[in-house]
Amino acid sequence: VDGAAPDTVQSLQHEIEVIKAKIAQEREKIKDKTLHQVADLANILSIDQLNIKIRKSLKGHNAKVLCLDWCSDKRHLVSSSQDGKLIVWDAFTTNKEHALTLPTTWVMGCAYSPSGTAVACGGLDNKLTVFPLTMEDDSQSRKKVVGTHTSYTSCCLFPGSDNQVLAGSGDATTTLWDVESGTVLQTFHGHISDVMSIDLAPGPNLNTFVSGACDNVAYLWDMRTGDYVQYFEGHTSDINSVKFHPSGDAIATGSDDATCRLFDLRADAEVACYEKEAILFGINAVDFSVSGRLLFAGYNDYTVNLWDTLKCERITVLYGHENRVSALKVSPDGTAIGTASWDTTIRIWA
Fold it and tell me: What's the pTM?
């Protein structure tokens, strides 16, 4: 019996490969046009030059800023840095409202809760920690370690309520935790390498989320079942960032292969690729404008590129950081963009 076991595993793996190849063929058959071709047929006008400048610079971290997230009140943001600090800023006045010391110096992910009363973070300590934000200075003492992964925590978000946190990890899984009890509500297995980024589907049905990982694949998950519903291949290197289109019908990915891609959930395929010969650097962060027409991408060559999602043209390049752009988020009302960088600053563009 033991002799037969390896063969069965191998034969099953072979069978999986064959089925995957068939799926790829079927997908190819129905690919008729790219988004770019459709846009040209519809005579969509190019976007004129936009006047986006740095309006505010948030300085206070002493080391690389690794992550940032906007609060739902559209004016506060939280950032985490390699100096072991989590800072809550007022982006209008550039004041620091909270500065929390973290258990590890390398905090890779941070997130604001929907109500704006708590922040979550995680990093190389493998933990996921939630800090309640109060006006008294006891946020530090009231911190709660919600869960521990078997590898580093790379990203986290609150899926529509303050009671749960979804965290992606270097152990190739994403886990849904209950904040109050610290129990695991759901684990999502499917990636075969470190999960780098997760994003929640917009809109009323907050049951799906997308994840991107170092196995070059983006998966769409159902939170109720714990299974993936769709997966998207095409990148040739690690996916560092995933983001839902505001319509909820497509996802954008940014990768170390120096391209951003748009995958449509309805077409079950890649519909656009945003690349240029001259762009050789990887992308760490992507986000959409509120309309979904613009795609902002933060690159390792210290720039932010602005893409027209329909025409696949680069509209402009935003210069201002002095080191790689590590995180980028459009504010909830779409009026500003926050970028974090290894140059220790956070810049607010509008």
Answer: 0.89
Q: What is the spatial distance between Cα 281 and Cα 292, in angstroms, rounded to a whole number?
A: 24
| Structure confidence by residue, pLDDT tens digits, 111-168 | 999 999 999 999 999 999 999 998 776 777 888 999 999 999 999 999 989 999 999 9
Tokens of 261: 């891609």
Contacts of residue 233, defined as CB under 8 A and 6 or more positions apart, other chains included, come to 24, 216, 217
User: CB of 153 within 8 A of CB of 122?
Assistant: yes
Residues 151 and 126 sit within 8 Å (Cβ to Cβ)? yes
> CB under 8 Å to 288, separation ≥6 — which residues?
243, 244, 245, 246, 252, 294, 295, 296, 309, 330
Type of residue numbered 238: D
Of 166, 154, 270, 135, give the one whose Cα is nearest residue 214: 154
Collapsing DSSP to helix, strand or coil, 41 comes out as helix
- Residue 295, H or E segment: strand 294-299
Residues 248 and 268: their CA atoms lie apart, in Å, by: 13
Cα separation of 176 and 180, whole Å?
12
